[in-house]
Amino acid sequence: MKVGIPTEIKTDEYRVALTPAGVRELVERGHEVIVQAGAGVGSTIPDEEYVAQGARTLPDAAAVFEEAELILGVKEPQPEEVALLRPHHTLFTYLHLAPDPELTRGLAETGATCVAYETVEDDHHRLPLLAPMSEVAGKIATQAGAFFLERPLGGRGVLLGGVPGVAAATVMIIGGGVVGQNAAFIAIGMEADVFVFDRNIDRLRELDVAFGGRASTVYSSTLAIEEMLPRADLVIGAVLIHGARAPFVIRRSQLGLMKERAVLVDVSIDQGGCFETSHPTTHSDPVYEVDGVTHYCVANMPGAVPVTSTFALTNATLPYVLALASGGVEGAIRELPDLRPGVNVADGKVTHPAVAEGTGMDYTPVEDVLSVTA
Ligand SMILES: NC(=O)c1ccc[n+]([C@@H]2O[C@H](COP(=O)([O-])OP(=O)(O)OC[C@H]3O[C@@H](n4cnc5c(N)ncnc54)[C@H](O)[C@@H]3O)[C@@H](O)[C@H]2O)c1
Description:
It is a single chain. By secondary structure, the protein is α/β, with parallel strands linked by helices. 33% of the residues lie in helices and 16% in strands. The chain is built from twelve helices and 15 strands. It has an eight-stranded mixed β-sheet with strand order 3-2-1-4-5-6-14-15, sandwiched between helices. Helix 6 (131-148) crosses helix 7. The chain is globular, with a radius of gyration of 21 Å. The model has no long low-confidence stretch (mean pLDDT 97). It binds nicotinamide-adenine-dinucleotide. Nicotinamide-adenine-dinucleotide binds at residues 118, 130, 133-134, 137, 174-180, 197-200, 203, 220, 238-241, 246-247, 249, 267-271, 299-302.
């Protein structure tokens, strides 16, 4: 199989989809790896390191797409990349299609098979390829929130941990999954008062044990949220329903309950956002204000720390990449059934039910378009 690694072109994205270690594993199994020149530079990986492990470099994305059959990415393809996809391609990357009918339609029209990292799901309903980036984004969420609470940056001017004689800030985290837990650990480390909201009681039990009394867990009803909003200095939104558009957990009408210049960080923005007033921002221009509340809604938060994120991501994706290269999509699904719900678009059809629902497009089961068993 010819495996292609184009340079990421989303704004402020510095990650790359494969490391030299990944090239080595692929080449040793008889595959060819084609890396766009400079693809690793943002993650401090020069071309020579790829070449030393057996990759070839090509000057631009068009040449990589032309030669490769399996295209590895990090963020969702941008319009100029969609234009390069053909029916024989398999695209393996984050897609976040449920809130994006235009991209979904564009990918379907290419005829390519598009496998989303974020909907690859194991036997225990965990998301092994979302988790490493959620760990990073959760940690950044608290850091970014603390930063934008500083007065010169438009915040309330409160220090998360307080000082002796002055109370700590209150951090409210809605969604206690991988992002929420990691955000909470950093907030606990910064000595804030931390409250984690979730609707899954078993998950709240696990968090309670993990926190060992250093943070509180709360069942996430509308009333409980409204009772906490007037106290919160920083609110982190981290809810997810697998593959689906994020539900709104804070409406515009509820912003009036919050303190002036409090900060909202919407980590779920890649799935459309969990605050009604959220819209995607970039690392270059990360915040805006609505009704006196600062909003931070960067859709590729881990892209800010590529030296950590590239390696964390590729450690997780490599076994799946090797399976896709060796067996194609159908063989890979037989070898690693976690990949089956990863197939979002194939043969012009939407093959993930939550993506179909989110985009308003028809749903076609994967087994209707690929030779895999139901
Ligand atoms: N912006 C970024 O750069 C970035 C990076 C990584 C992950 N993310 C996103 O962060 C979000 C969370 O990811 P995760 O890995 O933590 O997911 P997860 O599945 O581990 O956790 C989500 C949690 O949300 C809870 N939940 C669902 N609906 C809820 C509701 N209405 N109220 C309260 N809790 C609710 C679930 O019970 C679950 O515990 C996803 O949308 C993911 O794509 C964004």
